[in-house]
Amino acid sequence: MKNPQDMEAIFANAVRPSAPATATRINWSPYLTGIGIGVLSWIVFVVVNTPIGITTAISQISGGMASLFVGADVVAANTYWAKNVFDLDYGTLFLVGTMLGGLGSALAAGTWRIETVPRLWAERFGPSPARRYVVAFIGGIILMYGARLANGCTSGNGISGGLQLALIGWVFFAVMFATGTITDFIMFRPKTS
Amino acid sequence: MFPITGTTSLILAIVFGFAFGWLLHRGNVANYGTIVRQLLLKDFTVLKVMLTAIIVGGIGVFLLVQMGYAKFHIKESDLLAITLGAGLFGIGMALFGYCPGTALAAIGAGSVHALVGAFGMILGGILYALTFDWVSQAILPVWAMGKVQLPQLLGVGAPVIFVALGLFVIAFFVMLERRSVKPG
């Protein structure tokens, strides 16, 4: 039985035989990237009158998916989903675009590959994809519940709220950074063996 | 002419989303290691990207609003909900290793664990909607400050805040870059 890293390498080579061992083109300067996102904000504020944001549209998708499990009537009767109806509108299509942007950039840079267990995780928690998936899934639940309670995520509150000097943006930024740092310091504390 | 609505705006949603995802991936922030190393204070890429975007975006949007080409979109500062929500968000981001936007770009770039976490996010959204009636009564009204911006709160103009913030952030970046070139 081959280990997952070997399988990943085989898969990556099968997809793109000429993939370079070290990818350099995905490392744009963070300052250039930040300027790019800032300029994109100027454009979206003027052209579509909608700040960059992600999680409102994810809650619309939650409503769409929930109707498969709890029934369309329960979703229709819910006060939150009544305000965030699932539709192929600007918000949900922006999510599709974001995913395609990651795909396009990775393909153009020649770095597209299946990643089941990232290296930093594997060094600390081992190569098991199942363990990584369980923690990613639980993390996703907590992340999204928090984003809805705070009415936005890193994009909608942190960047779009922050750049408008909205109080909500800066409180969000500071608090999420604090709890995130504490949590990862605990998770990645030195092993006492 | 602007803002554009209707079907054209749906095409623009894909175009602008694509640009955002491309930037997140090229800036190396649609990456588990980059985000976790930021939270471990070993790599400051995420803060560099966010603070640069906030200052560049903020000055431009402020000027566009002044000139009448854009409008602010300020969300309500329901401070208890934001504090609790941001607290949970940070814990979730530390476990998941992505935030929502970077997770989507990472899914496009081939991250299977980002896709698994995205299903967790959908479940999280379902749980929020199912508890929303309670949340909206018990939590949202506590310390609800309305649509507050820092200039109103602090009693100084936005330009003053941008200058102060800009100087602070530049000093912070210079410190980071000096530290990163030191050997060892």
Topology (elements, then pairings):
The complex is a heterodimer of chains A (193) and B (184).
Chain A: H1 4-15, H2 30-47, H3 55-70, H4 72-77, H5 79-83, H6 90-109, H7 119-125, H8 129-149, H9 154-163, H10 167-187
Helix pairs in contact in A: 9-10
Chain B: H1 6-26, H2 32-39, H3 45-66, H4 79-96, H5 100-108, H6 112-138, H7 150-154, H8 158-181
Please describe what this structure looks like.
The complex is a heterodimer of chains A (193) and B (184). With 193 residues, chain A is mostly helical. In chain A, 70% of the residues lie in helices and 0% in strands. In chain B, 73% of the residues lie in helices and 0% in strands. Chain B has helices spanning 6-26, 32-39, 45-66, 79-96, 100-108, 112-138, 150-154, 158-181. The chains are: A mainly alpha (193), B mainly alpha (184). Chains A and B meet through helix 2, helix 3, helix 5, helix 6 and helix 7 of A and helix 1, helix 2, helix 3, helix 4 and helix 5 of B.
Number of helical regions of chain B: 8
Return the string of H and E elements of chain A: HHHHHHHHHH
Q: How many beta-strand elements of chain A? A: 0
Quote the beta fraction of chain B. under 5%
- Look at the structure and give the mean pLDDT of chain A: 89
What is the gyration radius of chain B calculated from CA atoms?
19 Å
- What is the CA-CA span between the terminal residues of chain B? 56 Å
Q: What would the principal axes of the Cα set say about the shape of chain B?
A: globular
- The secondary structure category of chain A is mainly alpha
Please indicate the percent range of residues of chain A in DSSP E strands (runs of 2 or more). Answer: under 5%
Q: Provide the low-confidence segments of chain A as ranges.
A: 10-22
Question: Helicity of chain A, in percent?
Answer: over 70%
Unreliable stretches of chain B (pLDDT < 50, length at least 5) are none
Number of H/I helices of chain A:
10
Q: SSE string of chain B, helix = H, strand = E?
A: HHHHHHHH
Overall mean pLDDT of chain B: 96
- Measured as a percent range, the helix fraction of chain B is over 70%
Shape of chain A: globular
In terms of quaternary structure, the protein is: heterodimer
Largest inter-chain interface? A-B, 126 and 122 residues
Based on helices, strands and strand pairing, what is the structural class of chain B?
mainly alpha
